[in-house]
Amino acid sequence: MIIQILKEAWISISAYKLRTFLTMLGILIGVAAVVMMVSAGQTVQNEITKTFDSMGTNLILIGPGETVSGGVRGGRGKPTVTFDEVDALKKLKDVEAASFIVSAAAQAVYGSNNYGVSIYGTTPSYLTVGNWEIEQGQMFTEHDYKSGKPYVVIGQTIVNELFGLQNPIGKVIRLKSQPFTVIGVLKEKGDGMMGDDQDNIVLMPATTLRQRIQSYFRHNYASVVFVKAVSEDKMEIVANRVEYELRARHRLKDGVANDFTVRLMTEMVEKVRSIGFILSALLAAIASISLIVGSIGIMNMMLVSVTERTREIGTRKALGAPNKWIMFQFLAESILISFMGSFVGMIVGVIFSQIGGVIFDKDVPISIWSVIISVMVAVIVGVASGLMPALKAMKLDPIEALRYQ
Amino acid sequence: MAEIQPVIEVCDLCKTYYMAGGLSQSVLKHISFTIYPGEFVAIMGHSGSGKSTLMNILGCLDRPTSGTYQLSGENVSDKDDEALAIVRGQKIGFVFQNFNLLMKRTIADNVSLPLIYQGVGDEERRQRAVEMLKKVGLEGYEDRLPSQISGGMQQRVAIARALINNPSIIFADEPTGNLDSKTSDEIMELFAKLNEHGITIVLVTHEDDVADYAKRMIKIMDGEKAYDGLRADYKENQGA
Q1: Interior angle at CA A251, CA A248 and CA A252, nearest 5
Q2: Which residues, in sequence order, are CB contacts of B88 under 8 Å at separation 6+?
Q3: What is the full DSSP assignment across A205-273?
Q4: Does residue B111 sit within a domain?
Q5: pLDDT digits over A17-35, tens only?
Q6: Does residue B58 form part of some domain?
Q7: How many CB pairs under 8 A join A and B?
Q8: Computed from CA positions of residues B36, B42, B47, B49, in that sequence, does the dihedral angle turn out positive or negative?
Q9: What is the SS3 assignment for B178?
Q10: Which of B82, B100, B118 is closest, CB to CB, to A402?
Q11: Which residues form the domain of B161?
Q12: Which among A318, B79, B92, B107 is least surrounded, fewest beta carbons within 10 Å?
């Protein structure tokens, strides 16, 4: 019976091709819009995750404390963690690596080329905590760090800007008029979260930076300290150990606030990702308005169809069609229209998302959510918009229906 | 000799329409008659006489207010909508004044439509439709659309559709009302031929020429049975 009803419904809707197509279009556009918005949202979330991953995983960030003046929170205070304290943090349990940066900015000069760069004074472990890899040459060693050697490891952008096609290894660049030998090149990372160029970076031993570029600094305080836990589930406990260790070293009494801040990268990732999720849900919600409009379109068309085919309904009833059959046939017609619209809409949505991905040079995932949304929409919209017309058709009096002009 | 079971047995049938404000209108008043297999009966009456209401009740599209109606020995006067739909599908064939064909469906689809509701498969439906179209002289027209054939042919299609489920009786409501006189004759001759083959036919008409094809006539006047007898006798009395 169900197959026969579906066949009859299919024949009926295919008899009015243009009308069926136009009705379908509403659902098609709605589903395509939702699929595209969900894909866009997921792409944004994936990009965020990728960016955070490129910054390092299982990371705990220690920065300056917050200033409090008269009970009012101010901005960031001065850095309070020294280079030596970072060395001590390395020895804590479940810590894979610890490093830090002190930053500066300068014009890098090589021959007649020059380029504005960010300089990170750091330790060799920075490669591990920052998820960096060496493309060419090598990283400076612990020995280079301790003795303050004028070695630099540079990012791809600087290679391109200063050296072009030349091999930069062994070449000498000048930063703040000081000569530095390029001993390594970092593997490309691409843009950071804020669209900043992560590859426009010069790494050098922090000791070298302090001696040659920032010799006016009297103390060796790290701007940001990175501690990498051995695994994600150890992050919380490592953060506690770091806090305990630093409080002890800073001789902070109970009740006195930290003069540093400890942040877990996972917390930051979750925060940003939840914003991304809310954003994509919001986009999908806006797109689903067109689904409601499409659904009203189907209901409208089915109501017109019932009125137009009143005589047909009367004839079918006179020839022995039970009321339920009539209802199911009209319901099947609206579900078929909705199903086709959703299916084609899903394909169109996926195709357009992929085209968008190509245009913006991003990997757009083909989500299982597209299929789930489409099927749900097909059933819900089909039933919701077809039920009222189908009931109307079912309730028609065969005598009145046969008389209908 | 075994007693022949009537196809239709109507006893004291009344139909009253109740309207808002407590008003009511009695359309059929205490009508009784019996129709046996193989009869060709014309129900006649002026416009508003109640003949269409009677036809609707006999065709199981409506229920009487009181009285009983037995179709092939089965009391159908108090059945619900679903049960009446089954009765219509199994025991009744309809031929309408304006054919009531589905214009977007082929002739074969139209003819086989009643079989869908009885769960007959595609192939058998098609086969039976082709056979039935042959009976009404429309062999080879199976895959055409109703709009591609004449009015007379369309009514033949409707007759084939009425016959396809081997009904106990065929109800024809003004079957020639939309046809010219020549085509009307052809259609009525087809009915006469079918009746000769033993099919029971009840015809509702107000045209004397059309009623002449029937052997028996029931005349309804103001909701009451005014005459029930041979058509020839009625004409003779009228002429006298």
Answers
A1: 95
A2: A317, A318, A319, A320, B59, B60, B61, B94
A3: EHHHIIIII-TT--S-B-SEEEEEESSGGGHHHHHHHHHHHHHHHTTPPTTPPPSEEEEEHHHHHHHHH
A4: yes
A5: 898 999 899 889 888 888 8
A6: no
A7: 62
A8: negative
A9: coil
A10: B100
A11: 38-50+80-239
A12: B79
List chain A domain ranges.
2-51+271-403, 81-258
Residue B119 CB neighbour total at 10 angstroms? 8
A chain contacts of residue B88, beta-carbon cutoff 8 Å: 317-320
User: What residue has token string 């009125």?
Assistant: A307
Assess if residue B210 is contained within a domain.
Answer: yes
Distance from CA of A402 to the nearest CA of B (A): 8
Select the residue of B85, B100, B104 nearest A320 (Cβ to Cβ): B85
Domain count, chain B: 1
Inter-chain contact B62–A322, Cβ cutoff 8 Å? no
- To test the contact with chain B by mutation, choose from A2, A319, A394, A399 the residue with the greatest count of B C-beta atoms within 10 A, namely A319
Tens-digit pLDDT profile for residues A166-210: 899 999 999 998 999 999 999 988 776 666 788 999 999 999 988
Q: Does a structural domain hold residue B207?
A: yes
A15: helix, strand or coil: coil
Q: What is the ipTM of this complex?
A: 0.92
**Tens of pLDDT along B201-213?**
999 998 888 999 9
CA dist B112 and A102 (Å) reads 88
